[in-house]
What does this fold into?
Amino acid sequence: MTPAPRHVPAARTVAVLARREAAAALGGFGVYIATTVALVAAVWLLLVDVRALDVAGILVPVDPYRAPLDVALLVLALFFAVSAAVSTARDRASGTLEVLFYGPVDETTYLLGKLVGLIVAYAVTLPLVAAGLFGVALLSGFALPGTLPASLVLSLVPAGMVVGFGILLAIGTSRVRSAVLVLGVVAFVMLGAAAANSIVLMVPIDHPSSPVLALRDALAGVNAVLHWVSPFAYMQRIVGEGVAIGAWQTAGIGVAGALVATCVMLALAAAWLRWRGVQRGGE
It folds into this structure.
C-alpha cells in the first residue's frame, strides 16, 4: 500500500523558494554592480546639488541626501525587479515551473517565495548603501540625516512593490528577453514621464498662449495618475516625500498603498499564471 504523501506547510515551501531566490540573486556579480551603480549615482547627484548650491551662494543645504538616497534605492529596486522578471521568465522557459508544480508548490507559494527571496536580497544590500553614504559623509562633511535608518527600513515596502510589478509583467511573457524588454519599456515610460514633468516645470513661460502651458498641463495630469499607479513613485513618496522631511502621515499612507498594491499584483499574477499554465513556453 502506497503511503500518503506527507503534507508540507505552505510557509515552509515559501521559505525554501525564498532561500533559493535570494541565493540566486546574491550569488552573481549583478547585485554588486547594481549596488555600485546606485552609490555612484547618489554621489554624482550629491555633487551636482553641491555645485548648484555653490553657484547660488548657499553654503548649507537643508537635506543634501534626500535626492541621492531616492536615486540609490530606486536603482536597487529596479535591479531586483529585473531579476524577478528574468528569473520568472527563465523558470517558465526552462521548464522549472512545471517541475516545481509537481511538488508542494502552487501559484501563490511560488510567487510569495520569489517575492520574499528578492526582498531579502534587497535588504542585504541596504547596509552596503548605508556604509557608502557614511563614507560620503566623512569625505564631504555633510552629516547623514537621522531619518536614514527609517528610510532604509521603510524602503523595503516600495521595493517589494517594484519587484511584484516585475513578476507580474514577466508572467505574460515566454522569453527572458521579452520580460526584460517589457519591464524596461514600462519603467522608462513611468520614470520618463515624471522626469519630463519636472523638466517642463522649469521652462519659463513668456506668453499666456505658450504651447509649454498645454504640455505642462498634460504632463501634470499624467504624473498625477502615475503618482498613485506607478510602483516607482511609491519609493519617492515614502522615502523622499515622507520619511526624509518627517511627514510620517504621508509615509504611512504610502506604505499602506504599496502593501495593498503588492497584494493585488500578486493576486493578479497568481490568477494569470493559473490561466496560462506552467508548461514550458515556446522559443
Summary: The chain has eleven helices and no strands. The chain has one domain: 10-276.
